[in-house]
DNA sequence: CGCTGTATTGAGGCTCCTCAATCCAGGTGG
DNA sequence: CCACCTGGATTGAGGAGCCTCAATACAGCG
């Protein structure tokens, strides 16, 4: 994997989104959008201007909760957050986790009121994106609107995969799939390797994400550990038998990754 | 709820998307986008041009299946379709049903290869939208890109609600929620009333959508029927006690509907 | 050094599944 | 016009998976 040299014409820089030196000068978010739409330097600059105030949020205190109106959205710089919905019974379902480079709260902005809660799992740093700025940018830089549509579709694909898992995979398969997906995403932003990653999630959170009880999560993790597949202890996930895990989970990462920008 | 008269300036026509006579001249799809972004007549025209060949598909034969490349997407004119994913074990999970006016296959176009299957539930008529036309339209008519982003986000909200249901609602609640959501969507496009709607889905399909077995669907439907809540027989859903059903399902339809366009 | 949140393990029970039989309606061919 | 066929709906019986409750073990922290 040789690094491409920075070409004169910026369009060419992003033909292979993971190999452009120039891109690493921009935010991980810009790098992500560059995977979908080959961005010009103007578009890159517009993206950079989008980043508003840098804000810090403490762990465990909701950044956004259901029903709030006129929210901003955020681009996550460091830390993990989760998006979840509360049910009347007091239970919750975690829809997704966001890791550095992810966009969050887009739906809360597009609809005027938030339809889900956003809670930092750890201490979080994020750039605020004002709703007005976002919509202005879309009208002035239409290709960015398309790029964000693309990114949103990738997020939707993840939610769909999550739905499939909860609907049709049993607890072991579902857990395996979840860990593999998380690992693949973290690897894409340089926060993990093929053999493992740091993971700040508690078994309660895993349970709320996987649609099962924390107790059962514990039993499943033990089974996976005793089967020599994967270990999740003390905030660290170690993948011991990737192939077996992939086979168990029926994991296909194609929905997470692309070879290059789809729109030239 | 008085009907607004058709104003001279088209921008104003769509302030209340369900009350504009002019809009009914356009496709249901245009009406839906108009709920998000107040469309000018030029934008409307661009939307109309998007509709390509009208195609017919027989029931039960996949229109698109996983892995196909270079797909078109479609705007559904009549009939029902479902989007589903197959698992290695031979089971499937239905992610969503599409009804007239819905856009389908957007993700299959944005990514170059389809990540899910699309199967007509009934005989279907749909306008083909070519991938190139779609992207061209986005660049020439940027507000339409934003509008489609909005519509895609609404779809995502539905998938999220579906995920929450499968993860954290039991079979009765889930089924009730599903029927309510379907009813609300059909009502929005004039295919149902508050008291019921025609529904071509078999109990097998319901099971694949709700993440349960067809046998259990049957038992749950019986319970709901015997409880006087709702009857689903011979392709017809009759809602007998809407309030009780809403309470049971913890149903909040705000994610389906909006008061008016969000972007003026 | 107790407090608090998390992890771990056991016991018992409920939900939902699978397998299997029966019933019913619509369509088809004789 | 009826026997047959097919796909869906319905019901029963037994079992697997996951849940809840509850106890105990840990680890970090003020």
What do these coordinates show?
2 copies of one chain form a homodimer. Chain A has 264 residues and is α+β, with helices and mostly antiparallel strands. Chain A contains 10 helices and 11 strands. A 4-stranded antiparallel sheet of chain A has the order 1-7-2-5. In chain A, strand 8 and strand 9 form a beta hairpin. In chain A, helix 5 packs across helix 6, helix 7 crosses helix 10 and helix 8 crosses helix 9. The N terminus of chain A is likely disordered. At the A-B interface, strand 4, helix 4, helix 5 and helix 6 of A face strand 4, helix 4, helix 5 and helix 6 of B. Chain B binds a DNA duplex (30 and 30 nucleotides) through helix 9.
SSE blueprint and pairings:
Two copies of one chain form a homodimer.
Chain A lengths: L9 H4 L14 H7 L6 H10 L3 E4 L15 E6 L2 E6 L5 E7 L4 E2 L1 H5 L6 E4 L3 E6 L1 H10 L1 H27 L2 H18 L3 E2 L2 E3 L4 H8 L3 H13 L3 E4 L2 E4 L2 H8 L15
Antiparallel strand pairs in A: 1-7, 2-5, 2-7, 3-4, 3-6, 8-9, 9-11, 10-11
Chain B binds a DNA duplex (30 and 30 nucleotides) through helix 9.
Q: What about the largest sheet of chain A?
A: 4 strands, antiparallel
Cα distance spanning the termini of chain A: 22 Å
Shape of chain A: globular
Fourth-tier CATH superfamily name of the domain at 169-255 in chain A: Winged helix-like DNA-binding domain superfamily/Winged helix DNA-binding domain
Name of the CATH class of the domain at 169-255 in chain A: Mainly Alpha
GO molecular function (chains A, B): DNA binding
Domain HTH crp-type (chains A, B): 169-243
Pfam families (chains A, B): cNMP_binding, HTH_Crp_2
Protein name (chains A, B): Crp/Fnr family transcriptional regulator
């Amino acid at each position: 994997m040789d690094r491409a040299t920075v070409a004169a014409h910026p369009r060419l820089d992003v033909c292979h989104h993971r190999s452009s030196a120039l891109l690493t000068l921009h935010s991980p978010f810009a790098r992500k959008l560059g995977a979908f739409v080959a961005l010009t330097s103007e578009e890159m600059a517009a993206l950079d201007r989008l980043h508003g105030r840098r804000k810090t949020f403490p762990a465990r205190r909701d950044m956004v909760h259901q029903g709030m109106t006129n929210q901003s959205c955020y681009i996550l710089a460091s830390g993990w957050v989760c998006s979840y919905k509360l049910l009347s019974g007091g239970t919750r379902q975690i829809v997704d986790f966001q890791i550095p480079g992810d966009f969050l709260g887009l739906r809360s902005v597009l609809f005027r009121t938030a339809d889900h809660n956003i809670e930092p799992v750890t201490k979080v740093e994020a750039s605020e994106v004002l709703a007005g700025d976002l919509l202005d940018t879309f009208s002035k830089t239409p290709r960015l609107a398309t790029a964000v549509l693309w990114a949103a579709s990738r997020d939707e694909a993840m939610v769909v995969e999550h739905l499939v898992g909860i609907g049709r995979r049993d607890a072991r398969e579902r857990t395996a799939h979840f860990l593999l997906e998380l690992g693949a995403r973290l690897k894409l932003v340089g926060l993990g390797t093929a053999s493992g990653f740091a993971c700040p999630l508690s078994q309660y959170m895993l349970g709320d994400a996987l649609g099962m009880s924390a107790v059962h999560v514990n039993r499943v993790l033990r089974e996976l550990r005793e089967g020599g597949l994967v270990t999740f202890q003390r905030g660290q996930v170690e993948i011991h038998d990737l192939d077996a895990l992939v086979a168990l989970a029926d994991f296909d990462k194609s929905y997470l990754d692309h070879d290059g920008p789809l729109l030239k």
